[in-house]
Amino acid sequence: MTALRITDLVFRWPRQARNCLEIPQLELAAGERIFLHGPSGSGKSSLLGLLGGVALPQAGAIELLGTNLTQLGGRARDRFRADHIGFLFQQFNLLPWLSALDNVLLPCTFSSRRRDRAGPSPRTEAERLLGHLDLKPHTWHGPAGELSVGQQQRVAAARALIGRPEILIADEPTSALDAERQQVFIDLLLQESAAVGATLVFVSHDRRLAGHFDRIVAIDEINRVAQDPREGGGGMAQSGQCCALPRSRPGAGA
Ligand SMILES: Nc1ncnc2c1ncn2[C@@H]1O[C@H](COP(=O)(O)OP(=O)(O)OP(=O)(O)O)[C@@H](O)[C@H]1O
Ligand SMILES: [Mg+2]
User: Fold this and answer.
1) Could you tell me where the DSSP H helices lie in 58-148?
2) Which distant-in-sequence residues (6+ apart) come within 8 Å of 180 by Cβ?
3) Which of 58, 73, 107, 169 has the greatest number of CB atoms lying within 10 Å of its CB?
4) pTM over 0.85
């Protein structure tokens, strides 16, 4: 079964002269775990934002679990994301005034599906995930904004994993972790995604991590803009409109 299919995607940020992404085709099978890499500024985070329905392309289709995100309205896209996608952002996007535990529980407040899939007690599940990620109980109850950067990154990971989303999207999720915690983190991510057959899209600069994954994809291989800079002027499409969307509900997509 196909979990993700991109067809003839064109994306340009507002006020940018060039297209950021032109991806004729990308397909991921359900349960597949891919390692996506590429130079800084090559469009990795932009692509993940499109996969998460945080932004919309000017052209093309993005199908996740058989639903074409580009045909959903904003609210339906928010709902789809909350129900089916665990999103681990490059900048974490924790709510700093909430505790670590409450941050992890956020997806269960936005989605009854995620809450049901978190088991009989979402709180116990949140504690299990935090414990697995080596966050000691004394860090669970204070404001998340007072945790170290590496601790915040692990809280964000637990938030993405809770409620067993079918699709996990992780943007540089290990950048703030030491080598030992990177290993624990990757093991947990792979273990949790395998347990539910989740499809995992993992972005990192660190090529040493690539060996853990089923498939390695360089963004330059799939993005025509990167292959030929002249194409960035609108080789596949020239739409003056851009559909990047402001986020309405922080934390809803994790
Ligand atoms: N919010 C935004 N508004 C306008 N342009 C943006 C925005 N975010 C990114 N871009 C542009 O899109 C291009 C790709 O950026 P993106 O963040 O996707 O790269 P990246 O591959 O994730 O880089 P990094 O490895 O540094 O995280 C860059 O040229 C950047 O200037
Ligand atoms: Mg990025």
Assistant:
1) 74-84, 100-110, 112-117, 122-132
2) none
3) 107
4) yes
Rounded to whole angstroms, the Cα distance separating 156 from 178 reads 16
Q: Is the CB of 20 under 6 A from ligand 1?
A: yes
142-153 residues labelled b (16+ CB within 10 A) or e (exposed): eebeebeebbbb
Residue range 2-233 in CATH 3.40.50.300: yes
Residue to probe by mutation, ligand 1, list 19, 40, 45, most atoms within 8 Å of CB? 45
User: In the chain, count of helices (H) and strands (E)?
Assistant: 9, 11
What is the residue extent of each domain of the chain?
Answer: 2-233
Amino acid at 80: F
The predicted-structure confidence for 190-219, as pLDDT tens digits, reads as follows: 988 898 889 999 999 888 889 989 999 999
Ligand 1 contact via 246 beta carbon (within 6 Å): no
